[in-house]
Amino acid sequence: MTKPNFAVTREPSPVRPVRIDRVEADPLSALIARLMDTLFVIPGTNIRFGFDAIVGLFPGIGDSIGAVISSFIIAQGVRMGVPKIVLARMAVNVFINTVVGTVPIFGDIFSIYFRSNVKNYGLLQRHANQDHASTAKDWIFVSVLLLALLSLLAGAIYGIILLLQNAGQVPRSPQ
Question: Which domain holds residue 147?
């Protein structure tokens, strides 16, 4: 016994599929955020980390290098017309990541979960090109902001150096 063929023939649908393009604010900033925060995966988990956590393992200098690289996304924000308040928020993200990152081990774990570069890239995507061209005042503001950030980093590095120098000295008891 043969089965009846109930196939229905239809004409092609006149509705075209809608293509939605994901617009990236800046591909280089996206690459930096990925390399610094989410490039690697801890096997057997969904925990992602990047070079920021790896470089942060080097006391003092590692977190400074990470902050300098992270400041590139802030500079791109100025170039792309991100409002000053958002630039300040981006700088605070880098500052928090850097200051907490100076604490051995805990700072690197914090960096894995905080992901300042991914946060800053998200801010860049949301606020870039909002009919606000960067002006000389914007560049001065960001330059002062980055200078303050680098000064704080230098202070943190100096503090770590002092701690390491004093760690080897045993206080003498008065005789």
Answer: 27-165
